[in-house]
Design goal:
This protein is an alpha/beta fold and 196 residues long. Helix content is 14%, strand content 26%. It has one domain (25-189): UDP N-Acetylglucosamine Acyltransferase, domain 1 (3 Solenoid), CATH 2.160.10.10. A hairpin with an 8-residue loop joins strand 10 and strand 11 (132-134). The protein is globular, with a radius of gyration of 19 Å. The termini are far apart.
């Protein structure tokens, strides 16, 4: 199949290329993101597990609001630290993708397990310019996002909510409810800790 990119008869002036417009973010911000990526690669991505306080310190230098007790594994991919908030003993496991074009909040004792994808960005498919759109993600206290799950833009995982392994959340997860599947469906209530 021939594409317009290798077709010598394609006239780019006759038909707009809406998806190939200018950059979404200002040059200054793109440079800051580049510096962040280099710093993480050189100073954190190779560090062993016990150096989580060092990684949290580095994230704070780039604007993250992270409690000193929060745990961020070295293999985590964080798009921009300035859009990250982590509470007491909050945790992001190995290989988590944190695409935080908008703010991501992980509250106290919340766990985001290995290779989970937290994605605040999407595109407006009905607009010919295909603009980037974003909405924040909030993971409330004591919630657990299990391994390889996907959490989409605008999701609020209520206190104590569970999203099972490889589950896909695109809407609100009610407090103390367990969800599984794609799309995530509630399967049962989660037992609350004593005194809750």
């Amino acid at each position: 199949m021939r594409s317009r990119f290798n077709d010598p008869t394609f006239d780019s002036t006759a038909q707009p290329l809406p998806r190939f417009g200018g950059a979404t973010f200002a040059l200054r911000f793109r440079i800051m993101r580049f510096l962040w990526t280099i710093c993480w690669a050189l100073l954190a991505a190779w560090t062993p597990s016990p150096l989580s306080p060092w990684r949290a310190w580095l994230l704070r230098r780039f604007g993250a609001r992270i409690d000193p007790t929060a745990i961020v594994r070295s293999s985590v991919k964080i798009w921009w630290p300035g859009n990250l908030i982590m509470g007491k003993h909050a945790s992001m496991g190995p290989g988590v993708i944190c695409y935080n074009v908008a703010e991501i909040t992980i509250e106290d004792f919340a766990i985001v397990s290995q290779r989970t994808h937290l994605c605040t960005g999407t595109h407006d498919v009905d607009d010919e310019s295909f603009p980037l759109k974003s909405r924040p993600i909030t993971i409330r206290s004591n919630a657990w996002i299990a391994a390889e799950a996907f959490v989409g833009p605008g999701v609020i995982a209520g206190e104590g909510a569970v999203l099972g392994a490889r589950g896909v959340a695109t809407g609100k997860l009610d407090p103390w409810m367990i969800y599984v599947g794609n799309p995530a469906k509630p399967v049962r209530n989660r037992k609350r800790p004593a005194g809750e």
